[in-house]
Amino acid sequence: MPCIEETDQLAQLIGQKHEVLTQLLTLSQYQLRLAGHDDHIDDLMRVLVAKQTLIERLTQIDRTIDPFRHQNPDARVWRSASERTQCSQKAKHCEVLLTELKQLEQKSTDLVSTHRDEISKMLQETHTAADSASAYNNTNLPASRGFDLTAE
Question: Where in this protein does the record put region Disordered (predicted)?
């Protein structure tokens, strides 16, 4: 049977998870605003680095929570019914935040992919135009670029 200290630890971990997910959501919203804008690449990279740090922290928290997942929730000893309710609500809100994060990540990925495809198309058009200009310039050149020094 879990003791009150273990339950306190679980509540603290769920609180930490909630905090990290909230920070990730804020960064993901900012990332979405930056995605697809060439002039904000440095800012986007900083956001991605910050997100990676938070994701690593979230992974660490989840590993620490793992042993609690095998416990019977009804067997946990809580300091109060309200603390149990708060923890339960926070855990449910974590799931909501995760769903929102997944949606934002998908939107951001779609936006970046669309932007990448547009740039690729523009580069292809530029390359084709350059090839055409080069081919045109080559057809206007004389057949020989040197002097004919042979005697007749």
Answer: 129-152
